[in-house]
Specification:
This protein is an alpha+beta fold. The chain has one domain: Nuclear Transport Factor 2, Chain: A. The protein has 5 helices and 6 strands, in the order H-H-H-E-H-H-E-E-E-E-E. Strand 5 and strand 6 form a beta hairpin.
Length: 167
């Protein structure tokens, strides 16, 4: 029985990491970060509650942003991705294996986040695993005037947000 569970877990891991584009398995942006924080367990529970596909990447990216105030290097702005040959509607991993789009300004046009920080929000893709579509899941974050970071997740492309506490 134990071997079956282990085998099933290994199969699930391979499926999560498989790009599906013939290039072999790639790690989702953030998965390989060597970073942790005191609230990793709470962030993992949040990822599970949000039904994120790549909880480890979520925990490590949110911890990275909170500790360092920027996204990990595996994130590319849209301009950086275009400079590498990516175009919307194409698979980013064909041009930049393992990368995700992030670092662009989020303008809060929908007015669903506090207006105090308009023009300072930054967005990043979540759960991107090398497909033609980036999906609807995003991390949005902003630096507080008093220091520290406030983070939100949207699962429905900015229709609603859940505030995340990475501390």
């Amino acid at each position: 029985m134990g071997r079956r569970i282990l085998f099933a877990a290994l199969q699930a891991l391979v499926l999560l990491l498989w790009t599906g584009n013939g290039a072999g398995a790639q790690e989702v942006c953030g998965t390989n970060l060597e970073i942790s924080g005191p609230h990793d367990r709470a962030l993992a529970e949040t990822a599970a509650a949000l039904r994120l596909d790549h909880a480890t990447a979520f925990v490590r990216v949110t911890t990275f942003v909170n500790q360092r105030g920027r996204l990990p290097d595996c994130y590319l702005t849209k301009r950086q991705a275009r400079d590498r040959g990516w175009r919307p509607g194409r698979n980013l991993w064909d041009s930049a294996p393992g990368a995700a789009i992030g670092g662009n300004r989020f303008h809060n046009r929908e007015r669903r986040l506090p207006a105090d920080f308009d023009g300072r929000y930054v967005e990043a893709d979540l759960d991107f695993a090398g497909t033609k579509r980036r999906g609807a899941r995003r991390l949005v974050f902003v630096e507080q005037e008093t220091g520290g970071w406030t983070l939100w997740v949207t699962l429905d492309h900015y229709d609603s947000f859940v505030r995340i506490d990475p501390r």
